[in-house]
Amino acid sequence: MIITLLSDFGSFYPAQMKGVILSRLQGKSGNIAGKITFVDIAHDIPAQDVRAGAFALLSTVRFFPPGTIHIAVVDPGVGTARRSLVVESGGQMFAGPDNGLLIPAARSLGRPVAYEITPHPGASSTFHGRDVFAPAAALIAAGQPPASLGPRVRPVDLDFGEAKKTAHGLEATIIYVDRFGNLILNLQRLPAQDMMLKGVRLKRARTYAEGRRIEPLITLGSHGFAEIAINQGNASEAFCLKAQDRIELEEI
Fold this sequence. Notes:
Blueprint: E1 2-7, H1 13-25, E2 37-42, H2 50-60, E3 69-73, E4 84-89, E5 92-97, H3 103-109, E6 113-117, H4 128-141, E7 152-153, E8 164-165, E9 169-177, E10 183-185, E11 195-197, E12 200-204, E13 216-220, E14 226-230, H5 235-239, E15 246-251
Parallel strand pairs: 1-2, 1-3, 3-5, 12-13
Antiparallel strand pairs: 4-5, 4-6, 6-7, 8-9, 9-10, 9-15, 10-14, 11-12, 11-15, 13-14
Helix pairs in contact: 1-4, 2-3
Organism: Methanothrix soehngenii (strain ATCC 5969 / DSM 3671 / JCM 10134 / NBRC 103675 / OCM 69 / GP-6) (Methanosaeta concilii)
Family: Belongs to the SAM hydrolase / SAM-dependent halogenase family.
Keywords: S-adenosyl-L-methionine
């Protein structure tokens, strides 16, 4: 049984979530606790950046087998009226807040079905990852169906949108900036030619190394989205751009 974790928590809070899961499964028939494999997708998601977390989850889940349980927590609304969810899609399960975080990934696997989790009275109002989502994941790992955790609901959606054709080229949104400073766009195909951004030519390339050192380029990343990069450089810094900025790519 694989359980993944994704959060903006940093280093030590995820260990508490794992401890809760293992404690709740300890002694269950079939030694379930001993059969759990934890995979940490990321815990360095920018603080409270739901869209960044959603992109990281979307980019990862297709590499996991059916039966995987994903716990994802980027949750600026923790403790408020926002709902807690378990979502089932494509044979995989997701537990997390109802703020759109889970939905792009779930939708990429199939047709998501969401159920609301009712937090127990003793749950912390500031750490639902430990007190709500980890216990829900333990129940699912023990064989409890998601539908038993609460009523079916329609979840909050999150959509990265699509790049739009303009008179001069394409208008796109930066949906994620990775640690290399690459600007990942809501564009799932590579333009047919070199483009211009802020008056700078972007070389259409298959690999980063096709560009000269410090040459800007546009390529199709391993995640399936077009990205603007600088060979051995940082495109975010060079173009003074960040996630959620809208840009215009001009045809040459």
